Amino acid sequence: MTDPTLLSIAEAGAAYRSGTLTATDLARAQLDRIAALNPKIRAFVAVTPDLALAAAAQADADFAAGIDHGPMQGIGFAIKDLMDLQGLPTTCGSRQQSTTPAVQDAEVVARLRAAGAVPLGKVATYEYALVGPSFDGLHPPAANPWNPDHITGGSSSGSAAAVAAGMVRCAIGTDTGGSIRSPAAYCGVVGLKPTKGVVPLTGVFPLSADLDHVGPLAATVADAALMAQAMGIDAASRLGQPVQGLTIGYARDWFADDPATASDVLVAMDETLSDLSLLGCRVTLISLPDYAEIEALGITLLQYQALQVHQATLHSGKYGGQAVETLLSGQHITAAAFARAQAAAAALRAEFAAILARFDAVATANVLSTAPPFSAFAANRAVWTAMRTLPFNISGHPVLALPIGFSDGLPMGMQLIGPDHAEARLCQIGDAYERATDHAVLRPSLSPN
User: Is 193 a catalytic residue?
Assistant: First the structure.
């Protein structure tokens, strides 16, 4: 039989329902793969075999009894260690965080478990979802499965690495400034940042209330869409529909002239939009508001709110150096400056909404280069990596991140942005592109450490 860890969510579901595979079979295969590869990739910080096998057995019993909870029934998933899983501590990647086990699941975890999904454990995050990778936190940083000498991006580092390494088909991540989308790009997987507020943040440790989002990372667009459905996001209803006549605004000038943009990224983006045009989409070059100004606005919101969360404990001596450095950067922001930033953010949301209303999707780059090596962070100081993600945390619009090719063996990625609640349309376009290319079938070659 085919290795069950290679099956898509839909393929595994079909096998369950035909009786050729059980959820217990898949859970055991995934647990074996985690045991073999995690010492090298360091994606999982806590594995829950008893919980996983019990959930898988329940899924099998439900199938046998004719109870069908939907596509996620019996499907394994991983949980970013920024959100609660009953019975395990939520460490947030920090020695500062309490080790008291959570008394109930985060709402997004509860939704997936109610849909019959199988929790395999907690995966790594940059400390408190701030910056990284750091080497003085609670856990060592996750490694990129395409080249373990390179970073995964953050802060949903373990989520992306676990999916890219084939330990799971899908994982939950959070995104405050690009923390689903940059790891998706660096690790060659799919990420979906949903419309702000669609997925409740109950049970998720906050970073910036104005910017925080929760969404899926997955091996394919279809996998991400099916997981998203169980999380409460209308994402899968248009999968497989043709894309002829759909309109895409290509925000090329947002990144093309930036010196941080790798030449291979620009070439890959242009080729991707050409591919979408050949699929029948109508592509138009557009301009977006000045990125540097938006990024400065977003940093003001993030730094001010993050410091408020950690103000009382920041000087405990238990935080890593990068976390402290980042949090202290919010000290200069006054309440009045924060209020002005919130007003500017409201105006920006309206401006983006007007632009997005003209198109089915807007396309632009995600990160501007491939994943840097760990050696670039040897001094354990925060290093800026060029992205184009933060504006859509401010605006709250949905964004699909997906792979578009490779440069020197490392993945590159793009973003599709849509109007509020356009997740299904974005997944329709992303799925069509994915099926017309080979990016979703390529996987890193991995062997146990």
Answer: no
Dihedral sign (CA 291, 164, 37, 90): positive
**Span 231-257, pLDDT tens digits:** 999 999 999 999 999 999 999 999 999
* 277 tagged catalytic: no
The residue from 94, 134, 155, 369 that is catalytic is 155
Strands 282-285 and 213-218, sheet pairing: unpaired
Q: Give residue 1's pLDDT.
A: 60
Structure tokens at 41: 């990739």
Angle between helices 221-231 and 9-18 (to 10 degrees): 70
H/E element, 11:
helix 9-18
Residues written for the chain: 449
Distance between CA atoms of 52 and 107, rounded to whole angstroms? 18
Q: Select which of 94, 157, 179, 182 is catalytic.
A: 179
| Paired tokens of 36 | 């073999």
Burial 246-263 (b: 16+ CB within 10 A, else e): bebbbbbebbeebeebbe
Catalytic pick among 8, 80, 94, 156: 80
d(CA 301, CA 297): 7
Q: What is the pLDDT of residue 440?
A: 81
Which pair of tokens denotes residue 221? Answer: 């667009």
Answer yes or no: 40 catalytic: no
Q: What pLDDT, on a 0 to 100 scale, did the predictor assign at position 232?
A: 98
For residues 255 and 265, what is the distance between their CA atoms, to the nearest angstrom? 10
User: What's the distance, CA 304 to chain centroid?
Assistant: 23
- DSSP annotation of 367: B
Tokens coding 383: 């290093």
Residues of the chain with pLDDT under 70: 1, 380-383, 449
What is the maximum alpha-carbon separation in the chain?
A: 63
Q: What is the DSSP letter of 1?
A: -
Q: What is the pLDDT of residue 153?
A: 95
Tokens of 408: 């020197």
The answer to whether 301 touches 208, Cβ cutoff 8 Å, is yes
Q: What is the pLDDT of residue 384?
A: 72
Q: How do residues 410-439 score in pLDDT, each as one tens digit?
A: 999 999 999 999 999 999 999 999 999 988
pLDDT of residue 78: 99
> DSSP string covering 201-269, please?
-TTB--S-TTT-EEEEEESSHHHHHHHHHHHT---STTTT---TT-EEEE-GGGTTT-TTS-HHHHHHH
